[in-house]
Amino acid sequence: MTDFTLDPTLAKDTAHVEDWALCRVLLMNDAQYPWLILVPARPNLRDFHDLAPADMALASSEITCASRALQSLFDPVKLNVAALGNMVPQLHLHVIARFTDDATWPKPVWGVRPAEPYEEAALASRLGDLREAFSRL
Amino acid sequence: MTDFTLDPTLAKDTAHVEDWALCRVLLMNDAQYPWLILVPARPNLRDFHDLAPADMALASSEITCASRALQSLFDPVKLNVAALGNMVPQLHLHVIARFTDDATWPKPVWGVRPAEPYEEAALASRLGDLREAFSRL
């Protein structure tokens, strides 16, 4: 894990949820969508295929955990999973719960609307719910 | 493989490249971006985490193959990998080569500009290049 430093833009835009075997799990500070970001805690990764094979297996399993937690908490109509990185080159995996009545459905969420940060109590409550859902997996 | 039928919208918008162990490999008929779509040939999949564990490993490895082929052919600045499915619910994985001078950089490609279909000769040439790149992996 040495030499891994979280990108400052990702750090600024998110709240820390917990750390898994591979990924740092972050909640995007945007109350419009239940939106997790998984950042593999390895140095110098840019693209999904930069992951070593064992880490790729971990990443798939952690995407599944994040997806199942969002599914159990929010019952979304669709999970959007993506590694884009056009703005922030450090490899990070979006896992986003989508609903037919959310702010940008059926468009992707990126770059369409400004983030709406959580109120402090709502953020604490959301983080608690996520940690509890993860502990049940 | 029984009971798998390619979604008609995916069929209409793409050209068939080849079939791999898990996925049908398609080229999006949009000359603005080198854009592959991998469709796991299993029935009734919607989200990435619906894949069985063995298929998830195959999917990761096939995403890697698609990414490496695009990298070797086009030397993009970034690969965008995503399972969205808000418009077409059948699970499909986008692997898109991105460039700082492409039509929508740094935005995601979905829903921003209408597709620009390949000319017939350009499509045949692109399919040939892809199959050759895959055969070298």
How would you describe the overall organization of this protein?
Two copies of one chain form a homodimer. The first copy, chain A, has three helices and five strands. By secondary structure, chain A is α+β, with helices and mostly antiparallel strands. Chain A has a five-stranded antiparallel beta sheet with strand order 1-2-3-5-4. In chain A, α2 (53-74) crosses α3. The longest helix of chain A has 22 residues, at 53-74. The first copy, chain A, is globular, with a radius of gyration of 14 Å. The model of chain A has no long low-confidence stretch (mean pLDDT 96). The A-B interface holds A 46-49, 56-57, 59-61, 63-64, 67-68, 71, 78-87, 89, 98, 105-108, 110-111 and B 46-49, 56-57, 59-61, 63-64, 67-68, 71, 78-87, 89, 98, 105-108, 110-111. β4 (78-83) of chain A pairs antiparallel with β4 (78-83) of chain B, so a sheet runs across the interface.
